[in-house]
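Subject: Sanity check before I submit

Could someone independently write out the structure tokens for this chain? I want to compare against mine line by line before I put it in a report. The sequence has 286 residues.
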Amino acid sequence: MTSNSVDTALNGRQSLAFSWTTAAFFAAIHALALLAPWFFSWSALGVAVFLHWLFGSIGICLGYHRLLTHRSFQVPKKLEYAIALLGALAMQGGPIFWVAGHRQHHLHTEDNDKDPYSARRGFWWSHMMWVFYPQKKFFDCKIYQQYAPDLAKDGFYRWLDTYFLLLQIPVGVLLYLLGGWSFVIYGVFLRAVLLWHSTWLINSASHMTGYRTFNSADNSRNLWWAAILTYGEGWHNNHHAYPNVAKAGWKWWEIDMTWWAIQSLKTVGLAKKIVLPPRVAADSKL
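---
Independent answer below. Compare away.
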């Protein structure tokens, strides 16, 4: 995206500063992920798929999103911390940053100034360029933590918010000991890139194409292929209509793998006070 296109996206407002440090970081991770064909093995691919699910579905979708952001259900505090740790391993920011940004997204959906990744600025802005043009109000901890005071007062979450990137070091070392550079390339770099883009599709594609079950006050859409890539998050119109509901896929064919995990936690007595869709909740003891 050029500076001119950024100006256009901002509807004539002053252009934002491009972060070359951020761009270099993401370019390096993407470049290392491109080494994957030269380090291929079926076991390495299996590691990438498993960690994409573990850090993506359990860490981000279940943990950062449905548990911490929307408080759609409750789990014991130690388990909540463990799930948040998995979210931090996804390399999508610390929990306070992620939760605060997403709460702002719901408070001011598609507002050009108040939604961190407003889809009205265009596909690429909402997909990833918002990260490369960081605005202080969304990226300065002293400012964004006001949208996540429940997490900001917790020392563990403050620590994760500061040091989440360093957690990739023990992950990389463990993967190297288990399978050499093949496991590292697939389990760290390829996994991170695939998980980034699948998550970002919810901010971009799911606000532009798909069907609408509910007449929500935004352009959120239910997008089946995005739901498959993100373990259920692609049923985005359902989510925007009822953001605090733990279940994203409401119809029988709206596959929601993250909901299956929540149900599993409930079955073993670890998930309680689960917020269900209104028509389901009336007949439920949850």
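---
OP: Matches mine. For the report I'm noting this point. Residues 1-13, 281-286 have pLDDT under 50 and may be disordered.
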